[in-house]
Amino acid sequence: MARFKSFAMPLRVLCAALFAALLTGAVPARAASCTDVPADAWYAAAVEYMVSNGYILPDANGAFRPDEPATRAEIVDAIWRSEDTDDPVEPASFADLAPGVPHPAVDWAVMRGIINGDDKGYFHGEDFVTRQDFVSMIYRWCGWPAPRRDVNFADSDQIADYATCPAAWCREKGIVNGVGENRFDPLGKVTRAQMAAVLARILEPYGEPLPFTGCVICVDPGHCVTPLAGKGYRDPVSPLSDETKATYTTGTQGKGMTEEKLNLIIGLKLRDRLRELGATVIMTREVSNITINGVQRCELPNRLRADVVVRIHADGNDDRSVHGVCVMTPTGDLLGTPSIKEESVRLGKLMVDAVAARTGAKNRGIMPRYDLTGFNFSEVPTVLIETGFMTNAAEDALLETDAYQNKIVEGMIDSLLQWYGIEQSS
Ligand SMILES: [Zn+2]
């Protein structure tokens, strides 16, 4: 989209920076082009790219003002400069632009459909820009591309209709990220640092986005260690039933570790691998000692709008010869959100096959369950993998090794990629 542009950095800025460096030999590290951008700031490379190419002009004194909100005029100007276009454009007329003063960036942005005025014919160039308006401008600039999935931020219902496709597309392309807790913050103001970062990601994409970019996955390592265990705490089995079951159960036990520990180890490995591949990961727990009950394990991914929840367990059996991997899936009349069943079963089948293939474990298939709190309270698709039997000496020995745990995790990754329909390039 961008062609190289030879806008020179204002000479005065360059000279001042060089002179300061020569004088002291050890000025505080700054991005080369601006006086107020620390070299180690998360946006430093983006600002450097935008400024050195002349797409964003620093102030006369060389300041970038990274933390200040960006205005509509500034964003339009940066997009226009990055296009390096001199196509003739019909002058746009806005009531708040001085007549006779050329404004080629605005004219071009109107012609390209990136901006409109308001219904009274005002451009509002000095207005700050909300995150939802920013992604809408970006989206129109990029040609109204179709997102692959629905928007999946925790506060999606607060995003204006016109901005839902833009937010979804920008997210899955890795152009915008959430602001924590999987929120988009649609009415938050875009800072000049964010403007530079987002535009730089579009203009100089660093290859294809990572495979799980835009995916929100919750990992729930089963059980926990808590002094509340054995004190009679109970969870409802379903939002549709008065039946309860014990909240804190210890799970099974292998030769060298408890199930709780194994689940946590595998859960953390899955978390790290998913993040490495670009996913937003929500963990129900990252330590052993925690008091989280079965309903709370669902509330978190429900509230943060995870796409899917993967619950991690290991099996035990009085018959110590039993071994193999299986995946439980939700079913039955107690399911609070029956619509999750189909997608859960689809993932369950993919996961048990993929983990069996990676590990060589016996494939015990999927096992539909109607009685699990973690299924019945879930509002998003969910599966529960039983990674193997800790009561089987041979399988337990494998389960407790790093290499076998990694194979389990890679199998889960394979199945999640397939479930999302993500093509793997390698
Ligand atoms: Zn368990």
Structure in words:
This protein has 426 residues and is of the alpha/beta class. The protein folds into 2 domains: 11-203, no CATH class; 216-418, Zn-dependent exopeptidases (Aminopeptidase), CATH 3.40.630.40. Helix content is 36%, strand content 11%. It is built from 13 helices and 8 strands. The protein has helices at residues 11-24, 44-52, 72-83, 104-111, 131-141, 161-172, 192-203, 259-276, 296-303, 341-359, 373-376, 393-399, 402-420, and strands at 216-221, 234-236, 244-246, 280-283, 308-315, 325-330, 363-369, 382-389. The strands form 2 sheets. A 6-stranded mixed sheet has the order 4-1-5-8-6-7, sandwiched between helices. Helix 10 (341-359) links the parallel strand 6 (325-330) and strand 7 (363-369). The protein starts with 10 loop residues before the first helix and ends in a 6-residue tail after the last helix. The site of zinc ion has 5 residues, from loops.
Query: Main sheet, how many strands, which sense, barrel?
Result: 6 strands, mixed
CATH homologous superfamily (4th level) name of the largest domain: Zn-dependent exopeptidases
Structural class determined from secondary elements = alpha/beta
Strand composition percent = 5-15%
User: So how many helices?
Assistant: 13
Note the run of SSEs as H and E.
HHHHHHHEEEHEHEEHEHEHH
**Which descriptor suits the 3D outline?**
elongated
